[in-house]
Write a structure and sequence with these properties.
single chain, about 180 residues, globular, 6-stranded mixed beta sheet, alpha/beta
């Protein structure tokens, strides 16, 4: 809560007061709470939205209330002219603990099923994560790092990344990180 206004100011200043052409954001865990509050506010600013500089928006292991995200946040952020990618895992111990404290499922916890929302590419990193990296797989798993490389550096959609395979579920399609490490080009 405390950092959201400062994060908004940072992103606003980067967007309006620098020559930066593209801003990619990777938010992790509770950092998603601050980022999403700031992002929602950015989307209300005509000066920012008319010269949109935000590229890849990556939500990794978000410790955000799943129901609130689906009901209130996702419908707004999918309108942004950015690709939004959500990384989830079914062995994320800190998110399991957060659920028990907060009493509601967390967005990054895929134990019940990955969240699938039109306009958001959901990536299940469960097989690439370990109990040691269950919450920090984005920086410890070579497979996830390779996928992030293709996402951010090559700007490839999930369907085009060699690090992923598609999974069709009753709720829709999501993507799973392949267990085999793919060396980036």
């Amino acid at each position: 809560e405390w950092s959201a206004p400062n994060f908004y100011k940072l992103l606003s200043d980067l967007s309006l007061n620098t020559k930066v052409e593209t801003i990619h954001v990777v938010a992790h865990s509770m950092g998603n709470q601050a980022f999403l509050k700031a992002f929602l506010k950015l989307l209300e600013e005509p000066e920012i939205t008319t010269n949109w500089k935000f590229g890849e928006i990556v939500l990794v292991a978000p410790d955000v209330d799943r129901g609130i995200f689906e009901r209130d946040i996702a419908p707004v952020i999918v309108q942004a002219d950015s690709r939004i990618t959500l990384y989830v895992s079914n062995i994320d111990i800190p998110l399991m603990a957060s659920r028990s404290v907060n009493l509601y499922p967390r967005l990054g916890d895929a134990r019940e099923a990955p969240v699938i929302i039109k306009g958001i590419e959901t990536i299940d990193a469960s097989e690439a994560a370990t109990l040691i990296s269950g919450h920090t797989y984005y920086r410890e798993s070579p497979e996830v790092l390779a996928d992030l490389y293709y996402l951010i550096n090559k700007r490839q959609a999930a369907k085009d990344r060699p690090t992923l395979e598609s999974v069709d579920s009753p709720a829709g399609r999501f993507w799973k990180v392949k267990e085999v490490y793919v060396q980036p080009e």
